[in-house]
Amino acid sequence: MELIYPSRCYCCQSVLTRKGQVVCTDCLAKVHYLQSPLCSCCGREFPDSSGTDHLCGFCLRQLPVYDRAQGVVRYEEPVSHLLHRLKYAADTSTLPALAQVIEPFVHDLAQEFQSAHDRIVPVPLFPARLKKRGLNQSLLLARIFFPKAGDALLVDSIVRTRDTPPQTTLDGDARRKNLRSAFAVRHPAAVQGRRIFLIDDVFTTGTTASECAKALLAAGAAGIYVVTVARVAG
Ligand SMILES: [Zn+2]
Ligand SMILES: [Zn+2]
Q1: Is this model's pTM higher than 0.70 or not?
Q2: What is the 79 CA–ligand 1 centroid distance (Å)?
């Protein structure tokens, strides 16, 4: 079958040469993995490629409510396309490709995670939006980030209390207003005293992460580590 219908790269359709691959080596080479030096809090890339992680100017002025945010790759092609397909077309066939892209990071994350103390929380969607979209991309991505999550993955501990326009349609100040008090923790006991790994698809300005973090911290969470597949540059 492989000879008649060879496996093709999910992104560029070229014939795959290595077994188990979903994305070809050329496409993977285009993926920009975020590497130190990064902001030790918000995960921002520094233009200078030497040195160690340190706080960026934004975080020095005002420290975010979360402890740390980290994206795996820069938000650009081909990953931006995969995430867009997943989010807006409910195309779950992108998941194996995304899993291959974040695979190098999954191992490091597993080292960091202590299932006895830590919990995983995907950023929730408003129920009506979830129904319309058919999936919550953050939950699916959380399962890729933590394949052995088990009960540590909390699927309904935090909820979106009102429907809000997609953040992509707004800018800075409007983003913050849009999401203010949009999240509530439904089961505080599940997060109390826990370090939370908060999972989302893309980190843009950090407003979504901050608003979720505020709700979780108010409910007694011990700390927030934001993990996203991609981070918008700048
Ligand atoms: Zn390719
Ligand atoms: Zn920063």
Answers
A1: yes
A2: 12
Closest listed ligand to the CA of 14: 1
Give the Å distance between the CA of 229 and the centre of ligand 1.
19
Expressed in angstroms and rounded, the spacing between residue 60 Cα and the centre of ligand 2 is: 7
Indicate whether 7 pLDDT > 90. Answer: no
pLDDT in tens, 124-175: 988 888 888 889 999 999 999 999 999 999 998 899 887 766 666 767 677 6
Quick one: three-class SS letters along the chain?
A: CCCCCCCECCCCCCECCCCCCCCCHHHHHHCCECCCCEECCCCCECCCCCCCCECCHHHHHCCCCCCEEEEEEECCCCHHHHHHHHHHHCCHHHHHHHHHHHHHHHHHHHHHCCCCCEEEEECCCCHHHHHHHCCCHHHHHHHHHCCCCHHHECCCCEEECCCCCCHHHCCHHHHHHHHCCCEEECCHHHHCCCEEEEEEEEECCCHHHHHHHHHHHHCCCCEEEEEEEEECCC
All domains in the chain, ordered by first residue: 66-231 (3.40.50)
pLDDT in tens, 87-100: 999 999 999 999 99
- Ligand that comes closest to the CA of residue 100: 1
Question: In angstroms, what is the span from residue 86 Cα to ligand 1's centroid?
Answer: 18
